[in-house]
Amino acid sequence: MNSEVIAPDDEKMKSLRTVTFVVYILYALSYFTGVTAIIGITVNYVKKEDVAGTWLESHFRWQIRTFWFGLLWAVIGVLTVFALIGAVILFANFCWIIYRIVKGWLNLNDGKPMPA
Length: 116
What we know:
Layout: H1 8-33, H2 36-51, H3 56-79, H4 85-109
């Protein structure tokens, strides 16, 4: 029987990595439910101190920026939809958010930090 001892720090990092993964899922699900992104950003802010100084901090920064810039461009898109430019802004925002979710998840899966 292989009884591998896992250090508390390893267990904590594993847990934080899972939290980070769940936030990416919540952001992706927000396209179907609408509210899960709010849960995701709340988790980001609640757990932000726990990831400080780790490679996961870059993922939290990436997720937080994705939320706020995505929200900003969504508001701009909605406000300008009557001028037809809004539809283009909303579509570009949709693509940008999907890109950031996928890139973040892939880097997390590979154990890599996000670029600054």
